[in-house]
């Protein structure tokens, strides 16, 4: 099975934002209107001021797109509202596409925007599907929506580091950089054998 994994460190996320929006001339309908006075065509409507705003938007848009939602609290004993949210859009196609945002917390705002824009496009596609094929234009739209169902399953992982995103920092609640400190199990013995007083 082919698996594509898209992780949004800031540069990759910026490129993805450009790609998502460059091909979008009709703008997604609905959820953006009236939000901070922005219109549905405003790129800014996908960005959030806070982690909690981003999380609420992600869940709302995932639901609208017909995704299955999961919420994974990272520090349930302290504050269960810090969650990694996972939206699964099942497809019939082969393979799996996984997109994550916010491994470095503060960078999650760009990745979240990409995921929101993608969900908006999927919602527009589902809405067109519901319209049916009463005329030529909607027949083409319905065909496009049908074709979309043959795509691979897409898994969107929102805010891998929700605490860091909420506090505008790269590190998580344990002061761990989830990217720089990610180790393969084989690498742990060497790390543990090192003098902990040596910097780095
Ligand atoms: Zn990063």
Question: Tags for this entry?
Answer:
16% strand; 6 helices; binds zinc ion; 38% helix; 200 residues
Give a structural overview.
With 200 residues, the chain is an alpha/beta fold. It has one domain (3-176). The protein is 38% helix and 16% strand. It has 6 helices and 5 strands, in the order E-H-H-E-E-E-H-H-E-H-H. Strands 1-4-5-3-2 form a 5-stranded mixed beta sheet. Helix 2 packs parallel to helix 3 and helix 3 (108-131) packs across helix 4 (136-149). The longest helix is centred in the middle third of the chain and has 24 residues, at 108-131. The radius of gyration is 19 Å and the shape is elongated. The chain starts with a strand and ends in a 7-residue tail after the last helix. The protein binds zinc ion (ZN). Zinc ion (ZN) binds at residues 9-10, 104, 107, 179. Zinc ion is lined by residues 9-10, 104, 107, 179.
* Integer average pLDDT: 82
Main beta sheet strand tally, sense and closure = 5 strands, mixed
Give the total of domains.
1
Distance between the termini: 38 Å
SSE arrangement, N to C: EHHEEEHHEHH
Q: Report the β-strand fraction as a percent range.
A: 15-25%
Radius of gyration: 19 Å
Which molecules are bound besides the chains?
zinc ion
The 3D shape can be described as: elongated
Query: How many extended strands?
Result: 5
What structural class should be given to the helix and strand makeup? alpha/beta
Biggest sheet: strands side by side, in what order? 1-4-5-3-2
Helix content: 25-40%
- Unreliable spans are 23-30
Individual helix count? 6
């Amino acid at each position: 099975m082919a698996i594509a994994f898209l992780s949004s460190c800031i540069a990759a996320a910026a490129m993805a934002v450009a790609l998502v929006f460059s091909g979008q001339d009709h703008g997604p309908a609905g959820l953006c209107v009236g939000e901070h006075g922005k219109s549905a065509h405003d790129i800014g409507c996908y960005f959030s001021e806070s982690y909690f705003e981003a999380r609420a938007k992600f869940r709302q848009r995932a639901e609208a797109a017909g995704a299955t939602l999961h919420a994974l609290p990272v520090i349930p004993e302290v504050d269960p509202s810090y969650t990694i949210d996972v939206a699964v859009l099942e497809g019939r196609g082969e393979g799996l596409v996984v997109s994550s945002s916010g491994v470095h917390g503060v960078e999650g705002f760009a990745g979240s925007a990409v995921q929101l824009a993608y969900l908006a496009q999927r919602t527009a596609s589902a809405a067109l599907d519901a319209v049916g094929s009463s005329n030529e234009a909607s027949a083409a739209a319905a065909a496009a929506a049908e074709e979309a169902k043959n795509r691979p399953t897409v898994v969107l992982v929102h805010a891998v580091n929700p605490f860091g995103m909420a506090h505008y920092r790269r590190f998580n609640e344990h002061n761990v950089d989830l990217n720089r400190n990610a180790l393969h199990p084989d690498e742990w013995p060497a790390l543990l054998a090192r003098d902990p007083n040596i910097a780095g």
